[in-house]
Amino acid sequence: MKKISLYIIAIGLLIGCTDNLKDATDFTSVENPNLSEGTVVGQPNSSNIWRAGIERQMANALNEILILAELGSDNYVNTQTFYSQFLDQLEIRNDDPDMEDTYFDIARLREMAKFGLETVGPGDVEYNATTEADYHFFEGMSYLLSGMYFSFVPQEEGGPTFSSSENYNTAIASFDVALGLNPKAEYHLAKARAYYYLGNQAEAVSSANAAIGLDSDFTRFTEFDEQNLPANTLESALFERATFDDFQPLPTLDFLDPKYSFVDAENDAPVHFLKAEEAYLILAEANLASGNVAGAQTNLEDLLAVVATREVREIDDSIEGRPDASANSDNFPARPSVAADMVNGRAGLVLDRQAGDVMVPSVSGTSLTQAEIDAMVNDDAALELLHRTRQEIFIAEGIRFVDMGVKLVIHQNEFLQNPNINEGDPGTSAVIPSFIDAVKANLDAITYDAGTNTATTAIDLNEILVANKSAAEVLPFH
């Protein structure tokens, strides 16, 4: 009834504005002679140009996803609410425009990939298997992202919803086609991630091994354009907005912040959304799930070897001004700021940004040590260590949010306009595991005593995740 009423109101408003409803809704009569389908389709090299456009859309999608996912996790606290007003407390609302923007940017990625496969590619005499493979890859990424961040969403405009598991399986099918055209390590890793979240340990391990078998330290990244856009939105929140300090990391992750920092006037920091480190972590978790501690130790040693080769950027982060002007208020307490600060009894996690330039990993970093690997035994502590390492390796990449088992919600505009979806259907309410919901107010909470240089997080989420490892929403191999 609500949908019918809204439709009647909308039609009435349009008719009140014009005597010809068709003129009010038919936008195809407006044509730009310099920018039409014919200027792209059928032109030499158009398929490669279209692929560049899909890469740009991937950047747009990541800009929407990463802000929400990082805020919704325990990785960051939003100290100025310049971006999302709700996600920092896991308030996931179907009237939040960020939900709509995130869903539609993923959907645009899918539709652009499909248009490339169905129209642009076949019309280009220079179309080749490499480009076609990437089209399938990005279509698969759209389904993978849908499965990661939503419990149910459509796979086509106005279509029925598909579950997270169904989206993962659709993604795998696309990645398989891409691999048949052009075997690449990142295609295998994308499959491994889908299988990981499906809980299919055997296939996840097979795909992870295939990925690093092709390239043991690969990375697939999205580039951003500081001058012509899109710029890296999360980089702005972490670094360029400086004294606004929009996002502050959990103190246990301080040494990894800001992962993204200013590059130059033309290029913004890239996001490495698929990288070899993930394969080693999948293999390590599979080995722990199977009781093979020695195998997991080898996997983590291989991980450390890859991390040691990744770029570490020297940056001047002194303008951040920690503690900021809001420090010591009820909402924005003082935060660790000097190298002498201990966090949860651990040293070396906090950078002193006023003492000079700081060295921050721009691809992957971790506090994991060889001594910790050597001390691993077959118990929950080893699994907690692994997930602490996952959190560190994937900071600012949107993975921690997914590992928490939280799902975003279909925006109300979609279920009001899509005849296949009604309010109350699966996907129109957020998914937050009960054990996450119980601690959501304390995800980013800390206490800090500058006099004694001690900081403590209110909770240890890795401990909570492992304690609930049998729950369907988290730790899919257990």
Describe the structure.
Helix 13 (380-393) crosses helix 17. The relative contact order is 0.12. This protein has a single domain, classed as Serine Threonine Protein Phosphatase 5, Tetratricopeptide repeat (Alpha Horseshoe), CATH 1.25.40.390. The protein has helices spanning 2-17, 21-25, 46-72, 97-120, 129-149, 164-181, 185-198, 201-214, 233-240, 276-289, 293-307, 370-374, 380-393, 399-403, 412-417, 434-437, 461-467, and strands at 76-78, 152-154, 161-163, 219-225, 247-249, 267-275, 312-315, 342-343, 358-361, 446-449, 454-457. The longest helix has 27 residues, at 46-72. It is mainly alpha-helical and 478 residues long.
How would the blueprint of this fold be written?
Blueprint: H1 2-17, H2 21-25, H3 46-72, E1 76-78, H4 97-120, H5 129-149, E2 152-154, E3 161-163, H6 164-181, H7 185-198, H8 201-214, E4 219-225, H9 233-240, E5 247-249, E6 267-275, H10 276-289, H11 293-307, E7 312-315, E8 342-343, E9 358-361, H12 370-374, H13 380-393, H14 399-403, H15 412-417, H16 434-437, E10 446-449, E11 454-457, H17 461-467
Parallel strand pairs: 8-11
Antiparallel strand pairs: 1-5, 2-3, 4-6, 7-9, 10-11
Query: Which structural category do the helix and sheet elements fall into?
Result: mainly alpha
Radius of gyration: 23 Å
Strand content: 5-15%
* Major sheet characteristics: 3 strands, mixed
By DSSP, the count of extended strands is 11
Strand order of the largest sheet: 8-11-10
Low-confidence stretches: 1-30
